[in-house]
Amino acid sequence: MKIGKFDTNEKVFIIAELSANHSGNLQIAKDTIYAAKVAGADAIKLQTYTPEWMTIDSKKEDFLIKGGTLWDGKNLFELYKEAMMPLDWHEELFNYAKSIDLEIFSSPFSKEAVDFLEKFNPPTYKIASFEITDYELIDYTASKGKPIIVSTGIAEFEDIQNAIDTAKKHNIDIALLKCTSAYPVPRSEVNLKTIPAMKEIFNCTIGFSDHTLGISAPVAAVTMGAKIIEKHFILNKSINSPDKDFSLTPNEFKEMVNAIREVEKMIGEVNFKPKKGRQFARSLYVVKDTKKGEKFSRENIRSIRPGFGLHPKYLPKILGKVACKDLKKGTPLKWEYIGK
Questions:
Q1: Which segments of the chain have a pLDDT < 50?
Q2: What is the pTM of this model?
Q3: Among the four given CATH numbers 3.30.565.10, 3.90.640.10, 3.30.750.24, 3.20.20.70, the one describing domain 2-49+84-267
């Protein structure tokens, strides 16, 4: 999948999720973008919404956050008002990220957000987990002709298939991110085995959006076939942000990037022909001086290291045959030395 000048077939696409970690400060947002670049991110992702585009301001039970989250007790409107990135920052942040050669895009949470973001010509759009059932939003986003990345945190199988079918009506590329919508996610609920299953079932680029603590889950996800990794990123943990508890600092993020790049090299390709070490395998050698015409026996030829003689599998065929020339101890056995 191509995202801007990046190709996920060549390299894992690593996204630093800014989310609410700007803490309402434009300079913090810019410093975070720069730190993400230094830490090795390929892209920075924003979230584009206003509270009014997301929900209504209501204190009714349905709108109160509960269930053991980091935000229990707030209503949805209050949380989104605290976490939102001001719309008038976007142009400056897009321009800044581009100036340091960092891909930048966003998650739109409404048609208004898509129209707003189109002004900045992002290379892709991200559909957040909780929006995967909003097929109208997916359809409208896909209609802009850019590839889209869809997170599947709250999705059932039918939701994922419907999202794909909706997007592909517009003949665009789509990537799916394995995700668990808990903040943070217990390791027992990550279920990385789903990644290769998603690849086989949906036949598209698969990635991983991570909300666990630490870096082991995204690194492991790459070994399971993830081609996109998304992780929340924060400049430092002293910043007041609702997302800070499951976000990586620059040093942690850099450690994750380095580990992913090492894993990429180790995954390599399917290869049953070793490039190194074959010379140390066993092979057939003359282990005792043998005269021309003398029969080969287990006393004068053996399977030993190194591997420059005939394959050991030929030993039964050679026993009892005669040497067609004088052979010194330590000579690797060749077919031309063997008579009838």
A1: none
A2: 0.88
A3: 3.20.20.70
